[in-house]
């Protein structure tokens, strides 16, 4: 009888690291552990740093600045508190993040919190020339209304395609602010270097800014800077999720306050005979 060939033992399964897209936001408040797991502490290379970030740098390793997460933890809570208070007073928030790593997170968290958002390209004058931007929004709404009524079916195919392309182009830049009929009361920004025009416009018109500020940025430009990695998807997800939850908390506080104001005590409705 032939001796059976020895079987090669099955290799143990390789541990799969979760992709940034599948990173689950931990429930509850942000902790040092969640900041570490999200890589919020990784800054940029030393040669790219902004000296104004010195107070937020803990150390440097292998030429990379390490952000002081003790300060990040405190400042993210301060920012969230301000966010909640501002929204509770009736302000609407505009979330801005046009870099690839921020696009999906900004969109989903803005939709979750009922906020406005910009994720493609910041249009110059969005805040400083709001009337012009509003006229483009009005035009987009008009085109979409015409399409819904069937007006596009009554023009030539070529003209219909042109109008449809115009709708798509306008929506690409305006869909997140289509319902923004007045100026926002607060901005949350990911990567103030890339979004420098948005920062400049907000400062010019006096709108406060909360932002995720990396080691290569100027924190003095921001009312509530949150020192942290603005390139890693996990880091962006964690901080943006916290800000969106703060928005929702502010909305709930405002609803509760309005409910209290309209309630009439039962005893006040009873008329003495």
Task: Provide the descriptors you would attach to this structure in a database record.
2 domains; Rossmann fold; three-stranded antiparallel sheet; Helix Hairpins; 273 residues; alpha/beta
Explained architecture:
The protein has 273 residues and is an alpha/beta fold. It folds into 2 domains: 33-124 and 183-261, Rossmann fold (3-Layer(aba) Sandwich), CATH 3.40.50.10490; 128-181, Helix Hairpins, CATH 1.10.287. The protein is built from 8 helices and 8 strands; from the N terminus they run H-E-E-E-H-E-H-E-H-H-E-H-E-E-H-H. It has helices at 32-37, 69-88, 100-113, 130-148, 157-174, 196-205, 233-262, 266-269, and strands at 42-45, 57-61, 64-67, 93-96, 116-118, 186-190, 209-213, 224-227. The longest helix has 30 residues, at 233-262. The model is unreliable at 1-20 (pLDDT under 50).
């Amino acid at each position: 009888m032939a001796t059976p060939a020895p079987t090669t033992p099955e290799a143990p399964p390789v541990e799969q690291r979760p992709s940034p897209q599948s990173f689950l936001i931990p429930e509850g408040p942000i902790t040092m552990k969640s900041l570490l797991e999200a890589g919020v502490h990784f800054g940029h290379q030393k040669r790219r740093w902004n000296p104004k970030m010195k107070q937020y740098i803990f150390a440097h390793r292998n030429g990379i600045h390490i952000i002081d997460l003790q300060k990040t933890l405190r400042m993210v809570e301060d920012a969230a508190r301000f966010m909640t208070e501002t929204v509770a007073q009736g302000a609407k928030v505009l979330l801005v993040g046009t870099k690839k790593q921020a696009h999906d997170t900004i969109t989903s968290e803005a939709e979750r919190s009922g906020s406005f958002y910009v994720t493609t390209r910041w249009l110059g004058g969005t805040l400083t020339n709001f009337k012009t931007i509003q006229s483009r929004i009005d035009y987009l709404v008009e085109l979409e209304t015409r399409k819904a009524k069937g007006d596009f079916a009554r023009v030539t195919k070529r003209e219909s395609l042109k109008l449809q392309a115009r709708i798509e182009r306008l929506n690409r830049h305006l869909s997140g602010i289509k319902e923004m009929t007045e100026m926002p009361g607060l901005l949350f920004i990911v990567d103030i270097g890339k979004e420098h025009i948005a920062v400049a416009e907000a400062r010019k018109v006096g709108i406060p800014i909360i932002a995720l500020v990396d080691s290569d940025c100027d924190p003095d430009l921001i009312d509530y800077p949150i020192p942290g990695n603005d390139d890693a998807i996990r880091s962006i997800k964690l901080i943006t999720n916290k800000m969106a939850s703060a928005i929702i908390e502010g909305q709930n506080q405002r609803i509760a306050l309005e409910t209290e104001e309209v309630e009439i005590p039962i005893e006040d409705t009873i008329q003495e005979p």
